[in-house]
Amino acid sequence: MRPVSASVVEHTDRGPLGRDEMARVLAGDIPRGAYVNLGIGQPTTVADHLPPDAGVILHTENGMLGMGPAATGDAIDPDLINAGKSPVTELPGASYFHHADSFAMMRGGHLDLCVLGAYQVSASGDLANWHTGEPGAIPAVGGAMDLAVGAKRVFVLMSLFTRAGEPKIVRECTYPLTALRCVDRIYTDVATFEITGDDRVVVRETWGISFAELRSRLDVRLERDVH
Amino acid sequence: MTLLCASADEAVSGIADGSTVLVGGFGTAGMPFELIDALIRQGARNLTVVSNNAGNADTGLAALLAAGQVRKIVCSFPRQTDSWVFDELYRSGKIELEVAPQGTLAERMRAAGAGIGGFYTRTGVGTLLAEGKETREIEGRTYVLELPIAADVALISAHTADTLGNLVYRKTARNFAPVMATAATTTVVQVRHVVEPGELDPEAVVTPGIYVDRIVRVPS
């Protein structure tokens, strides 16, 4: 049992996080030496905030462990790309493997953590991040479903509200699902959340928003983190 | 027995209309461009293509789609910023699409190559991609049954082959190629270098020559 205190880590005196700051906050919670897959898009930028001595080993699903930073200039090699198909570099100790092995690493529970974007996350940890379901939209799943069920822990990195102001943490997802009950934590521009697995969503920290306002805008069972 | 072909055209000869063709590559890394160009010249039609993506820009797999030779594509990630050839065909109803999770796509080919009749995976459970598929509880968790993808032909690229068909790859250009090599009746490989038996370190061979039917050096 953790000790109970009266205060929540609630900060209304500071503004919402920018995209870079969101990635930095998440990077700070990645354990030393973890094997990590960073999804396409904003999750990829988490790598820029990992300290060099963190010993985190990055996996890219197109067949590599020990992925290094983006390649530039003469270091660009068309045979060496990441899952977003951008040129990258290899670090000492890197390894290459084929796709069936790469996904065996995921499904087999060997990856410590993956970071994914999302359209919606439900209070029970269901994830929707691959398809808007709109008529005419071309469905493209890539490795999202495999990552979501396979990694030991799943962190989501996203803004908390859509441009129209709709919350993305919801009671039940209305977008097509990627995987059921898979999300452990959500890192947003205004707060970080822990999904407990029993339909409670715990607020860990806030930026520029009060717990009361979060509670009024999210239609889920929110609790304050007590520590 | 592996045949060393003099040209990409010779390497793709005999591919029949209606064939299922595995095409290696992840984006353009490992894409067998010269074999695809030869298949366009060869002209086989009504093909089912299995590949991770549905073509990039106007070359490689995109050019094969544009030539109207593909009836159906099975892939994990068709929609990309430069997939305009596929997007147009799909939106005008000229190509059938089957989307599979990337790891399931790879494992379905691995199963075919390994003589496995299917496998249960947690990937996709509770999603649109598992609709209509058999599910089963195993030790308290739900799994979905996925079936093998066997093909008539695999078109892949590798870095170096010896004349017995043993292959080594380079960096992330490896991707699906070793799996696809096992899953096709005829595996055709384009390589940058061809060496004599004994010149590849046997410990470093990734695809043993038993899986390889035809090799061609490009440029030839």
Automatic annotation (TrEMBL), chain A:
<dbReference type="InterPro" id="IPR037171">
    <property type="entry name" value="NagB/RpiA_transferase-like"/>
</dbReference>
<protein>
    <submittedName>
        <fullName>3-oxoadipate CoA-transferase beta subunit</fullName>
    </submittedName>
</protein>
<dbReference type="InterPro" id="IPR012791">
    <property type="entry name" value="3-oxoacid_CoA-transf_B"/>
</dbReference>
<comment type="similarity">
    <text>Belongs to the 3-oxoacid CoA-transferase subunit B family.</text>
</comment>
<dbReference type="GO" id="GO:0008410">
    <property type="term" value="F:CoA-transferase activity"/>
</dbReference>
<dbReference type="Pfam" id="PF01144">
    <property type="entry name" value="CoA_trans"/>
</dbReference>
<dbReference type="InterPro" id="IPR004165">
    <property type="entry name" value="CoA_trans_fam_I"/>
</dbReference>
<keyword id="KW-0808">Transferase</keyword>
TrEMBL record, chain B:
<comment type="similarity">
    <text>Belongs to the 3-oxoacid CoA-transferase subunit A family.</text>
</comment>
<keyword id="KW-0808">Transferase</keyword>
<dbReference type="GO" id="GO:0008410">
    <property type="term" value="F:CoA-transferase activity"/>
</dbReference>
<dbReference type="InterPro" id="IPR012792">
    <property type="entry name" value="3-oxoacid_CoA-transf_A"/>
</dbReference>
<dbReference type="InterPro" id="IPR037171">
    <property type="entry name" value="NagB/RpiA_transferase-like"/>
</dbReference>
<dbReference type="Pfam" id="PF01144">
    <property type="entry name" value="CoA_trans"/>
</dbReference>
<dbReference type="InterPro" id="IPR004165">
    <property type="entry name" value="CoA_trans_fam_I"/>
</dbReference>
<dbReference type="InterPro" id="IPR004163">
    <property type="entry name" value="CoA_transf_BS"/>
</dbReference>
<protein>
    <submittedName>
        <fullName>3-oxoadipate CoA-transferase alpha subunit</fullName>
    </submittedName>
</protein>
